[in-house]
Amino acid sequence: MASPILIEEATVQDLQHAFKNKSLTSKQLVEYYRDNIFIQAPLLKAVIEVNPDAMSQADAADREREALAPGQSLGALHGIPVLLKDNIASKDKMNTTAGSLALLTSVVPRDAGVVSKLRKAGAIILGKASLTEWANFRGKRMPGGWCARTGQGKNPYTSGDPCGSSSGSAIAAAANLAAVTLGTETDGSILSPSSNQAVVGFKPTVGLTSRAGVIPITPRQDTVGPICRTVADAVYVLDAIAGEDSNDEATVEVSKYIPKGGYKQFLKADGLKGTRLGLLRDAFFKFDQGTVQNETFERHFNTLRQRGAVLVEDLDASKFMETYKGMDKYEILAMTAEFKVAINSYLQKLEVSSVKSLKDLIEFNNKNSDLQRIKEYGQEYFVEAEATSGIGQKETEAILKLATMSRDGIEKLMRENNLDALLSPSSSASSILATGQHPGIIVPAGYGREGLPFGLCFGGLKGSEPTLIKIAYDFEQATKIRKPPSHFNSS
């Protein structure tokens, strides 16, 4: 087998180069990640299942590579192992459960749209990553990274809270348990764990990637995106999964944003030059003087300027934040009703399942309260959603209010000031991006005094992925903050 030194922290481009010069095979790569997962599983609890078909998929990828005629090439993800968050359906021998025992042994009708695209790109479906159960929409006391199928996931840098519902995907990417991973976000679930695990998280415009076959919270905000160790790797994944899917109507309209030639063309070393970045210090960057975060972000602001960006600071932060007053209340009001409709629809389409409705899920949890830890973590969101009766007047008003907030908030701010991106630390702007269906990409920015990573997020308007990629890639290349976790390092 190839030396682990070759694979540890290897990028997609590194791996493809190793495939090409025959110093590595996809089979060896799958063996490496599989062994790492088995070693780390008791510690990190980042992976629920390893695909029993991963090795045969690797063998097939190796044969396809060997059969290439001179001058031919395969896509960037061909032969690359991918971990899927366990709310993304795969029609194979693995389960899709959102981390809950209630959906164990259920059978999905087909691959999720993004999984079909990954298979078409030649990627290997390595397994299912853990998550905060039900994408953190079950109980209000649910700790980040806990699900009934694995227990409590751990941050590989601190052994603490991995944060956000795509926790397993972020842990796995950070700890080198897969080449690349997929997560989902409704509000913060890609950006937050990516920040806490020193990886790159890419939340696309809602509808840019298909949600068909993804266990839903709300189609209005749900999106699927990559969690990887580098911006380039995230872009290779986005190129593979973005685009139309007949099973998700939103993708038909949103696919108009996909540039001819895809997204990798925007991985430019001078991507910051001439950009205008919104810096709302009082809204997002109010750190005490002398703190690690304060000093680190000030250095990063200088780096952005040195790379040719203009930081626009003469913005009214208080007026901007006032626009979003009450956002959380409206968001949860709309989301609760939307969840009941969406989850009932998903469950009813399963080919095999012991639960067919949200009411069934609540009953299952009550009957298995110890295994599901109902007393400790609750299922208040489930119960509140079940009590709703569809999208009525108050829910419609809440949705309209959220749209108005986005129009008068981030959309107005960016257009009136000709901004290319809005800066924010960690996931502090996630709700603003989520409720407006806007994209964001987070890049490792530093480490706190106790070693907890934190990131810098670049948010934009719908369809602004090309600009965000240029900005994030240039920043990443200029800073190169990411380092693998030493405590759980497998090499």
TrEMBL record:
Residues 29-429 form the Amidase domain. InterPro entries: Amidase_dom, AS_sf. PANTHER family: AMIDASE, AMIDASE DOMAIN-CONTAINING PROTEIN. This is Amidase domain-containing protein.
